[in-house]
Design a protein that fits this description.
With 150 residues, the protein is mainly alpha-helical. It has helices at residues 2-21, 33-37, 58-114, 120-129, 135-148. Helix 3 (58-114) crosses helix 5 (135-148) and helix 4 packs across helix 5 (135-148). The chain is rod-shaped. The mean pLDDT is 81.
Length: 150
């Protein structure tokens, strides 16, 4: 991409220099037919077009600065959009995890409601839940562990 931008800028520069000299601008294609037919070559064979020894005119400088500013603005806008997409994706993931957690919480509450406290399972759960801040948290961990076990 940088190569084609350099080519475009050099072509514009050449057109303005020819205009200043009274010659009609010479339109040359960015790629020759041979370039299209041959397979892509190694980037180490790239030979940049040397710029003319004369300094660019103020009009050329202005156009080049304008093109550069426009390109930089497009890059900033693209970066902003990528950042926004990442933030939206993170938010979706957090919301999905929150919904899963709420569903697990409801299932754990239902499991606790159906648990008989004096059954073997109920007595075991009492011991299991002892180190938790609440029986609901313990039930959520227990049900989660059951799901992860094959």
């Amino acid at each position: 991409m940088a190569e084609s931008l350099d080519d475009l800028l050099n072509q514009i520069k050449a057109e303005y220099q020819e205009k200043d000299q009274g010659k009609p601008p010479e339109k040359k294609p960015l790629l020759d037919e041979d370039d299209l037919k041959s397979p892509a070559t190694n980037s180490s064979t790239y030979q940049p077009i040397s710029s003319s020894p004369s300094s660019p005119s103020p009009a050329e400088d202005g156009m080049l600065s304008e093109l550069k500013a426009e390109f930089e603005e497009q890059e900033r806008e693209a970066q902003r959009k990528r950042q926004q997409q990442l933030q939206e994706e993170e938010l979706k993931v957090k919301q999905r995890e929150q919904r899963k957690r709420e569903a697990l919480k409801q299932q754990a509450q239902e499991w606790l409601n159906n648990l008989k406290p004096h059954s073997d399972e109920g007595l075991w759960f009492e011991e299991f839940a002892y180190s938790y801040s609440s029986k609901l948290e313990a039930a959520m961990d227990y049900l989660q562990a059951l799901r992860e076990t094959p």
